[in-house]
Fold this protein.
Amino acid sequence: MLTVNGIRAIYGGVVLGLSDVSLKLEEGKVVALLGANGSGKSTTLKSISGMLRTEDGKLSEGSIELDGKRIDRLAPERIARLGVCHVLQGISVFPQLSTEENLLMGAYLRQDRKNVDQDMDGVYRYFPNLPALRRRKAGYLSGGEQQMLVIGRALLTRPRFMLLDEPSLGLAPGIIGEIFSILKTICRESNTSLLVAEQNTAAVLEIADYGYVLQNGRTAYEGKSGQLEGDRVKKFYLGLGESGTFISYHDKA
Ligand SMILES: Nc1ncnc2c1ncn2[C@@H]1O[C@H](COP(=O)(O)OP(=O)(O)OP(=O)(O)O)[C@@H](O)[C@H]1O
Ligand SMILES: [Mg+2]
């Protein structure tokens, strides 16, 4: 289990990224991390994976534990080796490498070559569009195909915990539904736990077991997915109207 306990994250010694965030990610679960722009979703994921430091940030309070052991002072590569894989916001393929070469980059740290072939087949099974694109330069793939590719590359690290930052960003509704349903299958079949930061509340709550809502760097509300779809949360924390569409601040008042 992965636990985040009351963390405060600061950037450059002064700018606050988070003031008080706590959450839990249990084995084999999908957890949604919701909140408006700037509420601290990405900073929370970066705190867990150790990437905060690469942006001149640090934790000034709280702790992060993996199976009861603190990981918040470890370097990002140590955290990755413990099975925590962070898929960053905005799709980041290696554009000049082929689809297959991109996937293999995910297996870079692994010694078990035999299992890598097997996992590669697994990725191609989850994402049936990818085999035909095996030799194509990743930079030429569509946005949806690139997002599938980065998730596939993450799977090749054999993660126990996958931190996904806005996997729906810039994608058409049909593709979003497809990707989320594949994520749910991955979680079920390989017992990988997913922490999914999303603006697309409706899509992620379809597959999540539990969710947290961040507001100004704090965990403001949490609950089972069904509960989070309720009106109170929609209106006051997520700025969503009855139909799931965005309402203006004026409408909320
Ligand atoms: N590298 C940085 N240096 C300074 N401040 C930063 C940095 N990255 C983020 N912040 C600030 O930290 C706060 C939280 O940002 P964060 O990116 O975590 O939000 P978010 O919830 O992921 O937003 P979005 O939905 O827009 O991706 C914001 O006020 C942001 O301006
Ligand atoms: Mg973000």
Notes: The radius of gyration is 18 Å. The chain is about 35% helix and 25% strand.
